[in-house]
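Thread: "does anyone have the structure for this chain?"

Original post by V.I.:
We have the sequence but no experimental structure in hand. Need at least a predicted one for the grant figures.
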Amino acid sequence: MSTTRPSTLLTLTLLLTTLFSIISASPLASPVQPRNNQSPGANLASYTVPTSDGSSTTLPAPTGTLKAITLGRGTQNYTCAAATSATPSPVPVSIGALADLFDVTCLLNLIPASEGEALIDLLPPYLINFPLSLVNQYSIPVVGHHYFNSAGKPTFDLGSLGFLTAKKTGDIPAPANACPGQGDQGYGAVDWLNLVDAGGSVGLSEVYRVETAGGKQQPACDGFVGNIEVQYAALYWFYH
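Reply from O.Q.:
Generated one for you, C-alpha cells below.
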C-alpha cells in the first residue's frame, strides 16, 4: 500500500495544533514549576540558530555547543518619567524584561531538523496571542525564567541546564514582516540579540534572542507617567 507524505505546511500545522492543545487541557492543581532536573530531549546537533533574516546585517556566529532551544513568553518593561523643562517630551525607557521559558524540544524529535526549524519559528507569533494568565495555568513544560537582576543585567535561569548573566554583544532589527504584537497589532517586534556571559554564569555562555514577536514600546510617553508592560514572545537559543 502506498503512502503520501504530508506537506511541510500540513505537518507544521498538525504539530502546532498538538502543542497548543495542551493549553485547552485541564489546569494543574498548582502552577507549573521549571523542570530543573530535566534536559531537552532532542538531538540539537543538527540545529543552527538564525543570525539574519537574509539582509546584509547579521549577528555574530555562535562559538559554543547548542544546549537548549526555548520559547520565551512574557513582557518587555518600560517606564515613562514626567515631563520637565529639560525633557519636555520624554520617551519610554527600557527597564528590562520578564518571561517564562518553555521547552519546545519535545516537538523536534518528531520531524527532520529542516522542518523542525521552520516549526519553531512559527511559535512566537502564535503564542503571543495567548494571555499570560492562561499560558501559566496550563501544563506547557517550563524549563526556566528570564529576568533582569538587581544590577540590571539580563539573566536566564534554566535550573540544572545552566544559569546565564549576560551582556549584549550584537543586535539587528527584527524582519519587517515580524509580528508587531498581539492580534498583529502593536508598535513592532523587538530586535534580535546576541548576549554573552557577563560573569558568574554556570553551564551557559551565550544566548540568542531571535524570531521576536511584539515587545516594542510606544514611541512617546504622551503625558503618561509610570511603567508600561508590552507583551512579547521570542525564541532563545542557548550555547556553552
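V.I.: this helps a lot. The chain is about 15% helix and 30% strand.
O.Q.: and Residues 8-20 form the longest helix (13 residues).
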